[in-house]
Specification:
alpha/beta, Rossmann fold, six-stranded mixed β-sheet, 5 helices, 6 strands
Amino acid sequence: MQIYIVRHGETRANVDGYLQGWSDDPLNENGIRLAEITGQQMTGIKIDCCLSSPLRRAKETAEIILRESANRDVQIEIDERIKEINFGSYERISTNAPEVKLFFPDPFQCPRFPDGENVQMVMARTQEFLRKLIQRNDEKTYLIATHGCALRAMLNFLYEDSADFWHGHVPYNCSVNIVEAKDGVAKLIADDKIYYPEEMIVDRYK
């Protein structure tokens, strides 16, 4: 079993530097292009199943990657468990706002967002998703389209240093992580791989 876990392409929120969470933003023009390049570079990989967050930016990314990688006939299954973190009443505030000052440097100590979630809650639902997927123990190849915080939460138990929630950095848009699983045992074999030129990266988290 191989599982390709991708963060969605770029959105206006990523460029402007505000929190999206459950806000349902579409990809911007560059985000579409990143997904197209990623899909083109994944041509030759036969995707058997695709699961996506219900949020538009993730689903659009999955659709583009499937189309560009010659897997357009694969149906996308929506799974609520791999949605982004819910920022509650802090949705759409600046990533530099004092209300979220702990979220990037020390997310484990960041309290639950009002009317929203904390990272521990996101870890619980995303890891339930991934662990149950691994338990299928089949020979299929999966594409998973999700979000930055959700991706880090999902893979946290596979990281060597699980205390470093962001794994050194927020994952770039359309970065791909590959998990290989056999007999219920999973390992990360590719980490934050990008298929597009580095100059196309928009990095708000340096």
